[in-house]
Amino acid sequence: MKITIVFATQRSGSTLLCQDIGSIGGLGRPHEHFLPIFQALRQPGPPPSGEDVLKTIVAAGQDPDDTGVFGVKIMLSYAETVCRLLGLEDTAADPLDTIAAWAQTNHEAAALLVLERGSVVDQALSRTHATRTGIWHRRKDGLTRGGQHEPGMDEEAFHRRTLAEMSAIVNERNRLARFCARQRESLCRIRYEDLAADPEVVQARIADYAEARGLHPRRSAVTRNLTKLIDAAMNAQQRADLRRYIDGLF
Prior knowledge:
The protein has 10 helices and 8 strands. The protein is α/β, with parallel strands linked by helices and about 250 residues long. The chain has one domain: P-loop containing nucleotide triphosphate hydrolases (Rossmann fold). The strands form 2 sheets. The chain has a 5-stranded mixed beta sheet with strand order 2-3-1-4-7, with helices on both faces. A 3-stranded antiparallel beta sheet has the order 6-5-8. Strand 2 (about 60-65) and strand 3 form a beta hairpin. The longest helix is centred in the C-terminal third of the chain and has 28 residues, at about 155-180. The model has no long low-confidence stretch (mean pLDDT about 90).
């Protein structure tokens, strides 16, 4: 069995990247397949075994047209929990390294991709906006998918939350950078800005990397149905409002 893993942080563009990877073909379907397991853990009863967890993830992450490979997306925030669920002994510098080692030593081939977003401010604004509206993804057909929702967030709370998210994102970026330095020979780093601006080039690079790692991407044409949650005009306004708020603190 072959595996594709996407390592990412919240509101970094990972849903778009995973949709592209699934469309390329031959790389599995790397989405957040651990989330239903996390939700099940809140219910009474014994936790699932590592073997049962893996069976669930493999089944969810397979492409029906290619059952020899599966994909999964892992957020930094729950990497340690993933190690525990899979029964992995976490002795590495970071749970991310433990997962990377598991992927490479227990599978026929492994593609490890890391997604990073260049702008800390834009990522933080995206997180806060999604939390306030309850809308985390917007599709071209107008459908949305909800997540954490705090509808009572006023402007003061919005700016404070954004500043807190900026601090958290900086820490996440530093952690990802250290992970990438340790795993530089085995992974592929993707920037959200490149993925958004030049998708065909990035998709070809992903396919080339996966092929070099022993997977067999089909290089199918990629179709996207996601649109930006925050358009350019709204982003500019939110940035200006945040700057005025910060200036008012001095």
